[in-house]
Each structure stands twice: as C-alpha cells, then as structure tokens.
Amino acid sequence: MFKKTLLKYLIAMAVGAVIVLMMLWGQGYFTETDWQRQCRLLCDAFTFSGLIIMLLCALVWVSNRGMFLGIGYAVGRLFHTLLPFLPKSKETYAEYRERKLERGGVHGYGFLFLTGLLYFAVAIVFLIIYYQIPTA
After folding, report:
1. pLDDT digits (tens, 9 = 90+) for 71-98
2. What is the three-state SS of the chain?
3. At residue 24, what are phi and psi to the nearest 5 degrees?
4. Rounded distance, CA 131 to CA 9, Å?
5. Residues 6+ apart with CB under 8 A from 76
6. What is the pLDDT of residues 30-56, one digit of tens each?
7. Which candidate, 99, 56, 93, 60, places its Cα nearest to that of 75?
8. Partner of 52 at 20 to 30 A CA spacing, among 13, 58, 92, 133?
9. CA–CA separation, 108 vs 116, rounded Å?
10. Is the CB of residue 69 less than 8 Å from the CB of residue 100?
11. Residue 116 CB: number of other CB atoms within 10 A?
C-alpha cells in the first residue's frame, strides 16, 4: 500500500517537474542572468504547475459527481446513430445515468491536490524572495 501511494506521488511530482522545466525553458530561464527575473520565472513556473495539478484534481472531482454524463450520453448516441455497424442502443438517459453512477467514480485522487499544493507553496516562497530582492 505504501509503495503504491509513494508511486502516485512520485509520478505527480515528476509531471509537475516536467511542466516547470518546460515553462522555464520556454521563457529563457537557463540563459537569464538577472536574479530578479530568474526568481519571477521560477515563481510563474511553479504557480502554473501547481494550479494545473490542482485543477486536474478538481476536474476528477466534478467528473465523479456526474457533470459530464450528458456529454458522454450524447456522444454515444451520436456514434450509434451515425455508424451503421454498431448495434442500436435503446437505453434512455436515465438508465445510462443510473448505470454510470452505480460504478462509482475515480477514488484516491487526493494526492493530486496535495502535490499541486506543494508546488504552489514553492511558488509562494519564490514570490516572497522576489519581493525581498532590492530593485536596481
């Protein structure tokens, strides 16, 4: 159990690190010589990474509540209508919704929020450091 949890956190941290590195590379951080600009770029990169991961957690939470069931039903009906080789579905939306909600949603995704919060905390540290640097 501990290994599985650790693996989830490590994968989430690695994805966040890739996002940070891509943002830093895209903004020219590695060729920047001004410490104040470097600090601002680090703050931006960690903020963006943290928010993306936390918003992914929110997306999973909303999906678990059934917010996308209507879209899934409509797309399924569209495919069954347009593609003649698929069997015709007589399932109503109420039956579809009941069937999907019986299965339950994704569980154990709280690590996304905590990982995003950690990246966001690092961004706040860089923001504090940025405002402590005297301007020339």
Report:
1. 999 998 888 888 888 887 788 999 999 9
2. CHHHHHHHHHHHHHHHHHHHHHHHHHCCHHHCCCHHHHHHHHHHHHHHHHHHHHHHHHHHHHHHCCCCHHHHHHHHHHHHHHCCCCCCCCCCHHHHHHHHHHHCCCCCCHHHHHHHHHHHHHHHHHHHHHHHCCCC
3. -65, -40
4. 31
5. 89, 96
6. 999 999 999 999 999 999 999 999 999
7. 93
8. 133
9. 15
10. yes
11. 22
Amino acid at site 97: R
How many other CB atoms are there within 10 angstroms of residue 126's CB atom?
Answer: 19
Residue pair 130/36 in contact by the 8 Å Cβ criterion:
yes
Residue whose entry in the numeric block shows the structure tokens 């593609």 = 83
Q: What's residue 136's pLDDT?
A: 62
% of the chain surpassing 70 pLDDT: 99
> What number of residues does the chain have?
136
- Residue carrying the six token digits 């020339």: 136
